[in-house]
Amino acid sequence: MFSMEDRRRAVDLYFTEGMTIRKVIAELGYPSEGALVKWVREDPRYTGACRRSYTLECKTNAARRALEGEPLARVARDAGCTPTSVYQWMRRYRSEGILGLMDRRNAPMPAEPMPAAGDDVEELRRQVEVLRLENAVMRETIDVLKADDPRLDPSMLTNRERTRVVDAIRGEFGLAACLKAVGLKRSTYYYERGAIAAGDRYAVLRARVAGLFEQGGRAWGYRTIHRMLRLDESDPIVVSEKVVRRIMREGAMRPVYLKRPKRWSSYAGEIGEAPANLVERDFHADAPNMLWVTDVTQFTMDGYKCWLSPVVDCFDGMVVSWTLSRSPNADMANRMLLDAVATLRDGEHPIIHSDRGCHYRWDEWIRICEEHGLIRSMSAKGCSPDNAAAEGFFGRLKNELFYGRDWRGVGYEEFRERLAAYLTHYNETRIKKSLDWMSPVQYRRSLGLAA
User: Which residues form a coiled coil (predicted)?
Assistant: First the structure.
């Protein structure tokens, strides 16, 4: 640390005529260049950037020594500058003499003719016209933008907004002066005028996108809406995904997914030997009823809670069966499993994969699996990616049905009806990119697997 006396000595030396940051450090041996710059800027005598200043005598002496053959590094060290500066001084001195080393402070002022009386009047008129133009630009900028818009600086306007400003004032000041005032090229101006005259060519598409966004409960993203536009049999629209995404962004059509509350867990400790993980995070199935996944999720409603337990087929994501209960008990999971095995055909024995929840380790669950030839598989303890297919289904379900909705005053039976309607839509009409933009039911019909 340096004392105040050390700092004062260094700063006073810097403000001595002809001294620079490097010269001060070379003479005193302290501090660093950054520290001295900071001290100088804190001094009341500081009026601008710490710009290195060299006297005419210093530059002339350095140039002559360099021309005589002394190493540039040695000359620069003595002058307190860089070798590059010495080289530039040497070049100017050799080509222009001492006049080449003069700056604005010591260069001779050229004699200027005295302006005639009429010149002063014309200059004043020109300045007044410039001020009138600047005032007009600012006035029209306020008109083009909202009064409380922070971009009241004309340089912050878009090209289209600048074009509107120019159109408003070009009759008074002329096109060339207006374009120069707002910083707009002539070609850009005429391009934007044509675009303004043509109007919004996506007006119809914007209305269609907004309608589909509301139809999807404000839960569909741009990919789904883009595909829905193409699949509309009555009036299909072929447009790129980028256009749909831009329209949704400009229209603030962003699905609102609230922050998820702390999740309920069905894990009750190791209450028995767990079966092996036969899936190993490979949730691909070549046919229906080969691989099922299941899990339990909680819904926190207005004054009560309820739990959903589904079976999802990994072939196409179809919800095979589901139960909703006011209590996450064994009966909820067992009824769901019995409804699922009722859909099996002879010879079908799927793998039923779950996490390590207590529902899947109780005696009745195990008995149902053994009776119907289901092959049990379990994730590792506390490892949600091992059951990613079920977790992903819950994420889509809650994003599209639950999050961002007002559930005040909605009772259990009403919620059950809404959930049933959504799961029917999920199986029959909700299209998926992974299924060539078909729903699970439509996909199975296209393969001849369903009537």
Answer: none
